[in-house]
Design brief:
- The protein is α+β, with helices and mostly antiparallel strands.
- It has one domain (3-7, 16-134).
- It is 26% helix and 22% strand.
- It is built from five helices and seven strands; from the N terminus they run H-H-H-E-E-E-E-E-H-E-E-H.
Length: 141
C-alpha cells in the first residue's frame, strides 16, 4: 500500500489481510450505509464460535444483516472475534453456515447499495426465524 492510500484509511480499519482497495470499498460502504456492521458493543456481546453447539433451534440470533435492494439476509449467531461468523443465510434458500464480516462490508447489492444491519433487531431463536429447519422428524410406523 502506498502512503497516499494509507492516508485514506481510517485508523483501526486496516486488518492484516486487507488490501487498500478492500479497505477503501469498506470505508465507502460505511459512509453510504451510515453505520458499522459490527460495533464494539456487538463485538463484546456476541458468543464465540461453537459456544451454542447442540442448542439446535434454541440457538439465539443476535444480529440481522440484509441487502436493501435484494432478498438476502444474514442472521449472526456466533463470532470468532476477528472476521468469521456462523449463522443462518437466507438467500436463494435458507442454510446454516459461515460468512465473513469483511465480505459483508465490501459487497454491494444489485442496485449498488451496501449490506446494512437491522438497527431494530431484537434477539430471537433460530426456530423463530426458520421453523422449517427445525421440525421434528416423525418416526416411521
Amino acid at each position: 500500500m502506498d502512503s497516499k492510500s494509507a492516508q485514506c484509511v481510517p485508523k483501526g480499519e486496516l486488518d492484516s489481510g486487507d488490501t487498500a482497495e478492500r479497505v477503501a470499498k469498506r470505508t465507502a460502504n460505511n459512509k453510504i450505509r451510515g453505520m458499522k456492521l459490527l460495533t464494539q458493543e456487538l463485538r463484546k456481546r456476541l458468543p464465540p464460535l461453537y459456544s451454542q453447539d447442540g442448542k439446535g433451534g434454541k440457538t439465539v440470533v443476535w444480529v440481522k444483516y440484509f441487502t436493501p435492494s435484494a432478498s438476502w439476509t444474514w442472521y449472526r449467531v456466533q463470532f470468532d472475534g476477528e472476521d468469521t461468523f456462523f449463522g443462518l443465510v437466507d438467500g436463494h434458500f435458507k442454510e446454516l453456515g459461515y460468512f465473513s464480516l469483511s465480505e459483508l462490508e465490501s459487497v454491494n447489492g444489485p442496485m449498488g447499495l451496501p449490506i446494512e444491519r437491522d438497527l431494530f433487531w431484537e434477539p430471537k431463536t433460530l426456530e423463530e426465524i426458520a421453523p422449517e429447519l427445525f421440525t421434528p422428524v416423525e418416526s416411521a410406523k
